[in-house]
Amino acid sequence: MNWLMTLQDSGHSVTAPALPQWSVVPFIGLLLTIGVMSFVASNYTHSRLSHLWEHNSSKLAIAVFWSMPVILLLVSVGAWDALIIGMEEYFAFLVLLFSLFTITGGILLDGDLHAKPRVNAGFLATGAVLANVVGTTGASMLLIRAMLRSNSHRKHTAHIPVFFIFVVSNIGGVLLPIGDPPLFLGYLRGVPFFWTLNLFLPWMVAVGSVLAIFYVWDRIAYSHETPQHLREDDLAYRPMKISGRINFVWLAGVLLAVIFVTPDLLKGFGWDGTPLMFMREFILIGLAGLSFVTSPMKSETRTINHFSFAPIIEVACLFFGIFIAMIPALHMLQQHGASLGITQPWQFFWITGGLSAVLDNAPTYLTFLTVAESLPALASGADTMVPIDGSFVATGYLIAISLGAVFMGAMTYIGNGPNFMVKAIAQEWGYAMPDFFSYAIRYAVPILLPVYLLIMLLFLL
Asked: Which residue in 181, 2, 178 sits closest to 88, CA to CA?
């Protein structure tokens, strides 16, 4: 993200390395490998490949294999900055996820609610609101275990974590900049903090539509539960209570650090280019450490939460390869984005969203925000211009880019950081999660694309 910002802010004084078209092949290969291995692991559980995919060391080996050609290419053309900043962004990404994962793992929403459709819909609705306060990652890690526990006595539950990813891990976090990384990046570029509240109506339509689909789906699934499973669910009922409240203090510290310890602030202290440029990450690691002091690994909260580092290790291994392998694709997008002929909000929505589903949505957002800055206000006359860091962007374009980047992160497991973490935690709890391809084909495409089409028709034409 900072690499792209440097290129854009410095104009012609910084020349991006010329990369061949084949340099996007490793990224495509990595995505296909993740998809195929996930498919085999889910559908051929006793195969050697399935057992191989169970080990995070195998995931790391695959990530290194596909990222190595990109590393060698960037070194050969002297693009050390691209590689180094890519690793800096990976470090910042991983530390934020690690701190939120660790701290929320010490918060126990202890209880076992009746796993009825209206209760499950309430979980998702709560998460959609909470995602704007503690971010999609924080809300996901805070609520997923409680929802899984409440539904653990039911049999037909494969859809529940999937809809959780849709609503809590992605769509819900569009109302404030701290909800999702691309919106926070826009805030750093000058978008007013509360401007994103303009997205309230699209948020209501998207969240409401997906919740309605979920409620119907879950009612049908609930009707197929056996009387025995329903009795077990009734007998297991316990009201919800919260333990490990001290971790809310550390969670608030994370949010304050993310909001106020910005690159501009660190640069003002003269820390840019020094180890202290990672002061925010050092603070987050320290807060995660304090969480372990107050809620140790063997504490009741973490034990009941089934807390382990396996999900965050899986994310670390896979996204190591993704962050490196996607550098050429993002570079080409930054170079040629302005020549794509995008002039309408609905076009920005679909292309920003489509690329955000397979690339990091933050730099994709930033790239098309820069493209939109070069365009005038929409001809309708009702459009206004939003001031951004000495420039302006039409409100219609900014709405489309913001919605596309956040909403369509739900289209694949790699579209947003919390997606893989929710998947891994659900599998640890014994839920049958769809593989990479099945998630997209059986769930995301038929459920989300019609909702996004409705968003386009109502707000982007």
From this structure: 2
Phi, psi at 109, each rounded to 5°: -90, 85
**Strand-pair partners of 109:** 242
For the packed helices 2-10 and 327-336, what is the interaxial angle rounded to 10 degrees? Answer: 30
Contact 113, 150 (CB under 8 A): yes
Question: Is the pLDDT confidence value at 64 over 90?
Answer: yes
Residue 71 phi/psi, 5-degree rounding, is -60, -50
Q: Do residues 131 and 168 make contact, with C-beta atoms less than 8 angstroms apart?
A: yes
Locus of tokens 């056996």: 226
Question: Is pLDDT above 70 for 46?
Answer: yes
pTM of the model: 0.81
* Maximal CA-CA distance, the chain: 70
**β-bridge partners, 400:** none
Query: CA Rg, the chain, in Å?
Result: 22
Which residue spans within 45-97 are E strands per DSSP?
Answer: none
Instruction: Report d(CA 325, CA 63) in Å as an integer.
Output: 9
Q: Contact 375/411 with Cβ under 8 angstroms? A: no
pLDDT in tens, 219-259: 999 999 999 988 988 888 888 888 999 999 999 998 898 88
**Amino acid in the structure at residue 444:** A
Pair 363, 335: CB distance under 8 Å: no
Asked if 415 contacts 443 with a C-beta cutoff of 8 angstroms, the reply is no
Contact 244, 295 (CB under 8 A): yes
Q: Could you tell me how far CA 431 lies from the centroid of its own chain? A: 21
| Cβ burial, residue 69 (10 Å; 0-12/13-18/19+) | middle
Which 3 state secondary structure label does DSSP give 190? coil
Q: For the purposes of burial, counting CB atoms within 10 Å of the CB of 64, is it exposed (0-12), middle (13-18) or buried (19 or more)?
A: middle
